[in-house]
Amino acid sequence: MSSNESRLQNNHMDAASTNTDVLLALTAPEPVVRYVEQRVRAAGLRVARVPATATVLKVSAPSATLEREAEHLELEKRLRPEARSCASERHWPMREFVLAQRADFAGAGEGGFFTPSERVFLVTALLEAVPVDNASFSAALAAGAVREVPPRHLSSLLRALASVGLLGEVSAAHCAGRLEGWRRSVGLLREWAWLRSSEPLALDAIRDYWGERTGFLFAWQAFYVQALAPPAALGLCIWWRRPKGTSVDDDSAVPVFSLFSVVWALLFSVRRPEFVGREVVSEITGEVELVEGRGSRALRYAASLCVSLACLIVPLAYMFVSLNLQDSLRHDETARDCLRLPEIVIFLLNKAARRDCPRLPEIALLLLHQAYRHEAHDNSLIVKRFLFEAFDCYIALFYIAFELRDVDRLRVELVSLFSTDVFRRVFTEAVLPLLMQRLSRRRHAAASAAAKKEDGGAGGGGTDGGSGDLELDEHEDFDDYLEMVIQFGYITLFASAFPLASALALACNGVELYSDLFKVSYLCRRPRRPRVSGIGTWLGLLYVLVVASIFTNAVLIAFASDQLAPLLPQLFDARQRQVGQWPSGIVLLLVAVEHGLLLLLLATEVTLPRPPRWVRLTLARREHEALLAKRRLLLEAPVVATPLGDVIEATPVGGGGGSKR
């Protein structure tokens, strides 16, 4: 364990070498900028202006300030081996940081004690807590000829700046450890270390620099790629042994693969916009809060439903037109191939609907989610956006599978999706942004050189110090999760139509795993996100797809293909199939298999431990040890007599503390 701690400590040393943790971009006149600098310095933070700019501030904090804030936010840090006295700490060597016990923590007082992501988290919390003095702020606004008047109840400087439209953005600044995760992951790939380890990526380095949310994204992607190996191997075997002249429609081995895929998926899934309302004074806290009436919320839901239906009409109409044209041009291969690209058209429609025209799905979601805040808003927004995307991606496939009942055609559509999707994703998410970024930098360098030449060589010709980070694109992990979950649906919902889907997904995701890491490392801003403990709502969406795959594969095998005919010929009657009737034996078998899989799903929910036993034991021990420590502190607390004769117990130093911000 000591070697691992030293490795982590060396990784973090470069984080302390930077003088910038957060960039604060303002759209304010000079008097307001000076006022902001004064207030930020008064809060114990360091602030300086980015060279060649007048309104971009570099904000950081000294180690002492970070340690106080870490104690206030109850940030957990790793303990030294000799300080792990409790049983739970020997299994999980972490403890909430306390200044009075700082000698117990590994690396305390050294330059790399806090990881880069922890520094951003702490500095952001300190910056959001900087208070505003209404009188002096109003004077600074008047001196800068700003006519807007901020609300009097706002106590945060950032919120006051945002209320008058002077806050551009708050972004985390890149530092020297930016490429550490990428370099170490590529090193693991070159050494084939991923074959000997459960982690194909340097997840510790990714988490320490980019934060827990990005770390969970890549950890889940890596786990998904590794989990695809069993169905990929079985799918390749079925494809390899298939006799000539046998199609997927009448292959007797495909039902076995479908059953295996559903069970595999079952085991695999075991698992804002600003709020607008009217201001009222809370009867509990006495602070001003935003609330919304039931009538206003009902109107927003109704408006959201109308806009959502309008957004779904376009892909639905395209699907019907495309499929009908493919039917009419079935004998014209060239024309049919031109129409067999629904995933590209759907991708363009989604881009146009989300970013242009004018972002109709977002309008619907904004109307729907005005009453949600923070994590609840984000989770509900993910569900609604996923429904938009899943409808676009799956509606044509469901129509072919269950209305036309054409398994061969369904397989062709899935082959088209998988053959073009990986190239589209890598090109649009990594190659194209890299080319555009380099072109933009060349133009910016040429413009800076021309301006410097006109000034006679005086002045600085660049955005040294981090303002270039503001020109990078923000990393949106929704798209990365969405692609994986939609692909998971292709593999599980239509397993009986395309057994090779798992093998193709394994190869494609292996490429995209490093493509996404390259994109994040070179092309994106450093995220400034809240700390998380999992992948959130996406796990529930995977669970829904698993349940749906039980029904879709059962119907495809029994009613849309002849895959069961070679296995159970006694249950099939050709005359009944010709008149559209289904034998009662097939229906009973379908119901039995479906109920059996649902019972298996219920059994895994009840029997499989979540989280693992050692995690539950460690958490229970920590809770018990915290209770014992609190009792000891109460017993050791000195007794103080008041002038009225009452006896109270003084709270000991370090014995618990204030509420979190």
Task: Tell me about this structure.
This protein is an alpha+beta fold and 661 residues long. Among the domains are: 155 residues, no CATH class; 290 residues, no CATH class. Helix content is 59%, strand content 6%. It contains 24 helices and 10 strands. The strands form 4 sheets. It has a 4-stranded antiparallel sheet, with helices on one face. A two-stranded antiparallel sheet has the order 4-5. The protein has a two-stranded antiparallel sheet with strand order 7-8. This is Anoctamin transmembrane domain-containing protein. It comes from Emiliania huxleyi (strain CCMP1516).
In short:
The protein has 661 residues and is α+β, with helices and mostly antiparallel strands. It has 24 helices and ten strands.
Question: How much of the sequence is in beta strands?
Answer: 5-15%
- Average pLDDT, all residues: 75
The stretches of 5 or more residues where confidence is low (pLDDT under 50) are 1-18, 272-277, 334-343, 352-373, 457-464, 642-661
Number of helices in the DSSP assignment = 24
Q: Got a strand count?
A: 10
Rg? 30 Å
